[in-house]
Amino acid sequence: MTTRRQFLRDSGAFTATLASGATLIAFAEAQAEDGNKSRKVRWGMLIDVANCPEGCSTCVSACSNENGWGDTGNPLTDAQWIRKVAVTDPQSKLRRSLPVMCQHCAEPPCVDVCPTGASFKRADGIVLVDKHICIGCRYCMMACPYKARSFIHEPLQNQKPHAPRGKGTVESCTLCVHRVDGGRLPACVEACAAAGHNAMLFGDLNDPETEISKRVAQHPVRKIRADLGIDPGVSYENL
Amino acid sequence: MAKRFFILLVLAVAVSLWPPSGPQATDLLLAKITVPKPAKGKGERCVDDTDFMRRNHMSLLDHQRDKTVHRGDRTKRYSLKGCIDCHAVNGKDGVPVIADNPKHFCRTCHDYAAVRIDCFQCHASRPAPGGTAKASAGKSNTAALQSYLRGLEQ
């Protein structure tokens, strides 16, 4: 039979264990945050449109291969995380071709309208859909000025282990978050460099020492629909 | 005192008579139930005690998924991808089976318990053909990415 003294002693020991466990968890969290949060990283991209040839879609196919989306024979509903857009100046007839994907806005309208909190912005500026919470209402698709999001209409099989996607949820460019977390570049940036165009530059916009920050500071860059005041993370040079 | 002694005596008799007819009854019962025998995973042991994992894997995965999606924590312990990599079951063709197949590691118990899981509507239910080591590089590589980006300047 447990005496009162024994019970008190045991429960005291239990509290002590719990306290040290809590300390461990707090320590682990501080370490985890060191990677992304405490440095206040903001990942962004700079696209030099002058180096982006018309007709080249290396970035699009690289994204498709990396994340497993693509043509399923339903062009009206197929997912499209990144697309090449051709623009022509109505007066000078100057033509430009540029990739447009999720612009990872600082004030993302998709996050504002999401009724469940599935659409969210990570501490490092990457805008994502938490598909565990997404109910597929598609408000975010209507709110996005860049037509960056897609809805999955059909059941899928053989998804990539690093890029889960499924019917009934909305998805978009993740800035290859699985690669960035592992210290690698997004697939489109890597493919563009491998093809010799070097039109895409990826980096931390909050660190003034990175090349992307220097280029953004020294060259005139444009953001699509800058008038909306949502501060996109993707900038375009020579547009 | 005598009352307490009597209670103890009754308890002792009850306990001594408890297993009604020894192990035979249990054996009979077990013979009627086909208890699932999930395939063994790779490696020496699981990331935690098997009993603990059987009871708590769902909470661990739930917790890990939020940490991964929202905070970018891609540690392998308790990650669904880690489970899938270790517990892949090969089919007749030598290729790991997907969750459609009743031999799939998760299905062996979940079919028995009649619990339908929807993880694999989105997640891959077998390891990537070329392995997933490349994509699971650790946090230390963030420094490598930084140095790569700085290298672009020169």
Brief description of this entry?
The complex is a heterodimer of chains A (239) and B (154). Chain A is built from seven helices and ten strands.
List keywords for this structure.
heterodimer, A: 239 residues, alpha+beta, Alpha-Beta Plaits, four-stranded mixed sheet, two-stranded antiparallel ribbon, 7 helices, globular, B: 154 residues, mainly alpha
Order of helices and strands of chain B: HHHHHH
Which fold does the CATH topology of the largest domain in chain A refer to? Alpha-Beta Plaits
Biggest interface between chains:
A-B, 44 and 36 residues
Structural domain tally of chain A: 2
- What is the count of β-strands of chain A? 10
Name the poorly predicted regions of chain A: 13-38
Q: What is the H-and-E element order of chain A?
A: HEHEEHEEHEEHHEHEE
| Quaternary assembly | heterodimer
Counting H and I runs of at least 4 residues, what is the number of helices of chain A?
7
